[in-house]
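Long-time lurker, first post. I've been practising inverse folding by hand and with some scripts of my own, and I keep getting stuck on stretches where the structure tokens seem ambiguous. Below is the full token string for one chain I'm working on. Before anyone asks, I'm not after the true native sequence, just a reasonable design that respects the backbone. If someone could post their per-position residues I'd love to compare against what I wrote down in my notebook.
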């Protein structure tokens, strides 16, 4: 069972394995239709497409962020439609050095399906290795039977974050780029800045230049240098997506146990009474 990363070589060996389900999570925050266009042009043979805005997020209310957590049963139903059973190995991929496959990885862990891994290097590395691609849409081989067994302890809400802003029991880690964290060049959300007390680790720092994750030892050393305790870390970002990439990096480094603030910055700023800060960490 793979619970963090899968190499392209391993996935190629299992392309015809009925116990594997592959999910294409490519997406762009500036172009919601890009992922499906890319999928229709070329994807890993047998892969299904997941729409980040719909399949990997719940309905927006205006106060619950840009990518609200989906209902666990609704998400499980989506997986069942792909043929996922409790014994299925899920492999998610995005373009590479990105955050969207990590979103599906987190959601699967959250509903109790740990046999979920991200394709190391994403579709970019898959293509660079000359592995097969297709434009043919995929059809599920069967109706799945996976059952949602949610783990609410993996999440915190805005009330928890607000109550622990000055509590050393919480280490808030913001995965956005440094300029957005500092309140500069904000192009996604209507308010710039960050949650007071948060530290900043841009999720892109977890990757090598070729889009693969850094080795476990390197990631472990970086997290240790930042004095991050996984039992206290709460990941957040703009909407709860790239924060999952930082959590995945911690798991790859062998330091599991951190949590996610699902609503993140886009939910936080929906209530003007919540404090904000600007400037570097």
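-- Answer (accepted) --
I ran through it position by position. Result:
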């Amino acid at each position: 069972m793979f619970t963090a990363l899968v190499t392209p070589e391993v996935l190629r060996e299992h392309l015809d394995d009925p116990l594997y389900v592959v999910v294409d999570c490519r997406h762009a925050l500036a172009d919601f239709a890009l992922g499906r266009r890319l999928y229709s042009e070329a994807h890993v043979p047998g892969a299904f497409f997941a729409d980040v805005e719909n399949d990997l997020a719940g309905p927006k209310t205006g106060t619950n962020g840009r990518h609200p957590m989906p209902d666990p049963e609704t998400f499980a139903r989506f997986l069942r439609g792909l043929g996922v059973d409790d014994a299925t190995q899920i492999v998610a991929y995005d373009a590479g050095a990105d955050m969207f496959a990590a979103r599906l990885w987190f959601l699967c862990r959250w509903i109790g399906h740990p046999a979920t891994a991200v394709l190391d290097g994403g579709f970019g590395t898959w293509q660079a290795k000359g592995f097969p691609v297709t434009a043919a849409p995929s059809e599920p081989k069967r109706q799945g039977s996976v059952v949602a067994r949610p783990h609410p302890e993996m999440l915190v809400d805005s009330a928890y974050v607000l109550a622990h802003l000055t509590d050393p029991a919480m280490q808030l880690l913001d995965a956005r780029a440094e300029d957005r964290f500092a309140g500069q060049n904000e192009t996604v959300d209507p308010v710039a800045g960050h949650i007071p007390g948060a530290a900043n680790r841009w999720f892109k720092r977890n990757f090598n230049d070729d889009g693969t994750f850094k080795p476990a030892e390197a990631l472990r050393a970086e997290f240790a240098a930042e004095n991050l305790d996984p039992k206290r870390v709460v990941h957040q970002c703009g909407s709860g997506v790239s924060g999952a990439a930082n959590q995945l990096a911690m798991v790859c480094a062998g330091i599991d146990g951190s949590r996610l603030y699902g609503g993140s910055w886009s939910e936080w700023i929906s209530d003007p009474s919540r404090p904000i800060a600007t400037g570097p960490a």
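A couple of notes from the structure itself: The domain at 5-128 is CATH 3.40.250.10 (Oxidized Rhodanese; domain 1). The first helix runs from residue 8 to 13. Happy to go over any region you disagree with.
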